[in-house]
Design brief:
The chain is an alpha+beta fold and 196 residues long.
Length: 196
């Protein structure tokens, strides 16, 4: 049946490798699905359910792993990073998020030093009626998970997976307070998609 449809050219087919946006989306969705499954397993175990051992690593195929091992974070990261100051109100930050569609922002001091990161999840912990009173400085995470521009994408991805985060702050190796860029899971997926 399907062969006859193809022969009549009623359906057009193409290789997924030729459609980098589609491949990127599929890779991203597959990773997200596995992360959700791992979270559900952890929750069931926490509730006392006996769950058989599973592969907890978010794994890639050999080709993707090779590409990620050979690619440097500095080649993939976003260099023009949107940052916020520690003294803006959470309500203002929410406006910034709505306008620019990013879910997390590095917090940088008046002298340009990285002091933290704030995410949408952090904002959601603040009651709606308090968001115009609370400053970003009060909710920003200070314990940062970072990487350097010369690190491999695979090591950066492993850090993201280990800490269950969607972005890494890329800092100068000689000065961990100097922000050089940001790397998201989406950046990694785009890099992989371009290689096919």
């Amino acid at each position: 049946m399907f062969r006859s449809v193809l022969e009549r050219e009623a359906v057009r087919t193409m290789k997924i490798e030729e459609q980098s946006d589609v491949l990127t989306h599929l890779l991203s969705m597959a990773m997200r699905k596995k992360m959700i499954a791992l979270q559900e397993v952890r929750e069931l175990r926490r509730k006392g359910f006996s769950i058989p051992p599973i592969d907890q690593a978010l794994t890639f195929l050999q080709r993707e792993t090779s590409i990620m091992a050979d690619t440097k974070v500095g080649d993939t990261m976003t260099r023009a990073v949107m940052t916020v100051g520690p003294q803006i109100r959470v309500s203002q930050l929410l406006d910034v998020m709505t306008k620019h569609h990013h879910m997390g922002y590095p917090v940088v001091s008046e002298v340009g030093e990285l002091v933290g990161i704030v995410t949408f999840e952090d904002i959601m912990k603040i009651p709606k009626e308090k968001r115009s009173e609370v400053m970003v400085d009060q909710i920003a995470k200070r314990k940062l998970v970072t990487a350097h521009p010369d690190d491999s994408l695979i090591s950066a991805f492993e850090k993201m997976s280990e800490h269950e985060i969607g972005r890494l702050l890329i800092v100068d190796p000689q000065n961990p307070r100097k922000l050089r860029g940001i790397l998201t899971r989406t950046d990694i997926m785009h890099t992989l998609g371009k290689q096919f």
